[in-house]
Design goal:
With 458 residues, the protein is mainly α. It has one domain. It is built from 19 helices and no strands. Helix 2 packs across helix 12 and helix 13 runs antiparallel to helix 14. The longest helix is centred in the last third of the chain and has 47 residues.
């Protein structure tokens, strides 16, 4: 039998770190590819082309983030079944996930391609950027099924404790992606469509690698009966997945509103904001990975009813988030011009980006801790809490940007992110402490009753 990884037994810190580092490298490689992709587009095609690709980021997050939220939510049920050693239920949950993700992929592909032009118009996309944004978006969303397939396969593997296979898949696909990017843009002179084609091909490759690994896991050998009898799982899958999907989408709407105001400032601001977003996403990856780790660890131990280990896991993952903040927040705070200059060539764009990076760098700890406690709530079977926090994020972003942008200009985008992070982490931290505390107290009462039962019998 191909190996899976039980996170309910053994030393908590060792298990988490062994699970964390391969997944960290996976996520960092994905972001490094995005950075390399941005740099290749910017250097090869110019700041306007970079702005066109970056202009798609909030819309891409809306669509892909929705599917990622579903996959992450579905994997919670899989992790719980694995932790409880209920393999029949695990197979049915996996079969239900496959069927649901296939339907969702078809629907999202149709919606995103049909309404792309209208949405870009609503975002105040500059006429100089519209053609390239459309070209990039049509190709990217046309290959959405590959992205969803990779997200689902990697989430299932992580739910079973395997973070190494997604890492291997991303290494191979990232190298392939960068080579194809350079070949298409510098040799074939294809423009932004070359970058989009390379991205879709890389996603197909990474999904295929993860699928090959899943085929080797005996407890996941699905039969026709698993697919026929998985309908009983639909309600549970959606109860976990839909709130997470909506959370990502609601957060994306807030980001799209910010993109709307940024686009209204001009093309230079759009290009600068694209680079700022890339750096923020890159530097929050260690904490984001700690969140994914927390989700898998909590899900398995929740299924095994080992609640005291969830507390230990939260301490380890929060420690990772704080170390990440100290390292990467400092880089954003002290070296904003150098960071911006790595991907932007215009002095105006670099100056604009340097207004955003120090503010978010100083407050990066808020979003870092948000990843940990939001994933903890999800793993504890409370997906509505992250969804509500997504509404808080959206409200804070929109409120701050509307109030502050007339007074402080582009810097309002940074403060909108900061206030959104603080509001969301406060809610998730409080909810996590209350919910886990209740489970811990119930566990202590159960142990106490077991200790007293022999006396009662005598």
């Amino acid at each position: 039998m191909s190996k899976t990884y039980d996170l309910t037994q053994g030393r908590t810190s060792s298990l988490i770190l062994r699970f964390f580092f391969p997944m960290l490298m996976t996520n960092m490689l994905q972001q490094i590819y995005n950075m390399a992709d941005t740099a290749i587009v910017g250097r090869g095609l110019g700041d306007n082309a970079l702005g066109a690709v970056g202009n798609m980021s909030s819309l891409t997050f809306l669509v892909i983030g929705f599917s990622m939220g579903l996959a992450n939510g579905f994997s919670v049920s899989i992790a719980r079944s694995y932790g409880a050693k209920d393999y029949q239920r695990l197979r049915r949950a996996t079969a239900a996930s496959v069927k649901l993700c296939l339907i969702i992929a078809i629907v999202l592909t149709l919606l995103s391609t049909v309404f792309l032009r209208e949405i870009l118009g609503l975002l105040q996309t500059d006429a100089e950027l519209m053609s390239d944004s459309l070209t990039y978006g049509y190709i990217l969303f046309g290959g959405l099924i590959a992205t969803i397939a990779y997200n689902l396969c990697s989430c299932i593997l992580r739910a079973l404790g395997d973070s190494k296979t997604p890492f291997i898949a991303i290494i191979i696909s990232t190298i392939t992606n960068i080579i194809l990017d350079c070949f298409c843009i510098f040799v074939l002179k294809t423009g932004v469509e070359g970058a989009a084609i390379a991205t879709v091909f890389a996603q197909i490759l990474s999904a295929f690698i993860c699928w090959l690994r899943l085929r080797k896991i005996e407890i996941l050998h699905l039969t026709a009966d698993d697919f026929r009898n998985c309908s009983c799982m639909y309600l549970e899958m959606f109860s976990n997945g839909l709130p997470m999907a909506l959370m990502n989408s609601i957060t994306a709407v807030g980001c799209m509103v910010i993109q709307y105001f940024v686009n209204g400032l001009g093309v230079a601001y759009t290009s600068a904001f694209s680079v700022c977003s890339r750096y923020t996403n890159l530097f929050m990856q260690p904490a984001c990975t700690a969140g994914f780790t927390m989700s898998a660890f909590t899900g398995q131990n929740y299924g095994a009813r080992r609640y005291e280990r969830i507390r230990e896991g939260a301490h380890v993952c929060a420690g990772i988030a704080i170390v990440s903040y100290m390292l990467f927040g400092s880089v954003m705070f002290f070296f904003p011009e150098r960071l911006a200059g790595l991907m932007l060539s215009g002095s105006e764009q670099i100056s604009i980006a340097a207004q955003y990076l120090p503010i978010c760098g100083a407050m990066l700890f808020a979003v870092d801790l948000l990843f940990v406690f939001r994933s903890g709530c999800q793993g504890l079977g409370r997906p509505l809490i992250p969804m509500i926090s997504g509404i808080v994020e959206m409200a804070m972003r929109i409120g701050v940007i509307v109030i502050m942008i007339p007074h402080i200009g582009f810097r309002a985008t940074a403060w909108a992110d900061v206030f959104a992070w603080i509001g969301a982490v406060s809610l998730n931290f409080a909810a996590f402490e209350i919910i886990l505390g209740k489970y811990l107290r119930s566990g202590e009462k159960t142990k106490h009753r077991h200790k007293l039962s022999p006396v009662a019998e005598r």
